[in-house]
Amino acid sequence: MATDVLELLVVGAGPAGIAAAVEARRRGLAVLVVDKARFPRDKTCGDGLTTGALRALEALGLDVRRLPSYVSVRETVIVGPDGHAVSLPLPTDRGEYAGVVPRRELDAALVLLARDRGIEVRDGCALASISVERDAVRATLADGAVVRARWVVGADGQWSATRRLATADPSGDVARDVAAAPDLGTWHAFRGYYRGVDDDRLWVLFEPDLLPGYAWVFPVGGGRANVGFGVLRDGATTGKELARLWRDVRERPAIRDVLGPHAEPDGPSRAWPIPAAWSEGALTGPARVLYAGDAARVVDPMTGEGIAQALESGRLAARAVSFGGHPANVAAQYRDTVRDALGTDLWFARTLQQLLRSPLGARATIRAADLTPWTRRNFARWMFEDYPRAAVLTPHRWHRGMFTGRGAYAEH
User: Positive or negative CA dihedral for 233, 238, 241, 247?
Assistant: First the structure.
């Protein structure tokens, strides 16, 4: 029988969960992190890191440049549906603006970071049940241990067990939580690793039949690359159809030209859903339960990027909890801060997604980016979230040097 009450239980030890735990620890809260997986473990992902993600990781205290497979991106090539290619440079002397590292390495490093900060992380330990009491949340783990915590942050991904178990709790706001529950994902993606890849640049290819989605080739070091594609998930599209599309996409001449003649698959390919349907209601569930990262759908609907948003939402969840107060007030504060930090950008990205649905719109966007050296340079920094996606619409976030800032890990 559990007697002590923690301030915070975090379910999920990915970027959102570790960000929540580290922030909670910084604010003096007692925190426990649990995850059903054992680390290191693979996480199906494109492995790309934007400037926003890199800065957030730096703020956590993790230097991703030290990870074995990290690759710094200095040049991105975007290929339009008509084959027109645009090379977008990133600064080479002002820190890191984009990078790629396998999630197996990144997430394991985050878990190690948390443990080094004195945070208990129990991996290989799934959540079995959860119930909301008057002044705490009671959680039973798969090993039979019972944990009571003032707050729970569900950072356990698209298929959040926290959400599923909390929804079944009759003391919670079941109707709202069910309405906010993720479906099969707004996007679907496939990913495979290749070895023997000649080109070490980051490639994004807007194939006509994938729009507004795209294919990618992201370098992960040692002549290896993360190769994949993402498409909007049509309710009529089956898994078998998506698998057939993946087999076709990876053999297309545009992709093979980037990979080079000696590239070959390096392990199995994997598919995953991307929950990019932003909704404030997905951030909170029953009293004392918050959601972050993919469990809260805070994923960029234009690019599928979710690591920066996961880190930010996890941090904001811990910040809201640290202020205390009535559960309804904490939940409202969390929704407000996430809306201010991410909501407008996610809405703006969803609006721009419509522009990329047609080949004409995609061609016009890419050719506009190729107008001058200035547009090429600044489009790259906008694409990698060097500054807020919807900065033009949010004057309250403007500050001196916003469009000329240093990247992550810059020498100050």
Answer: positive
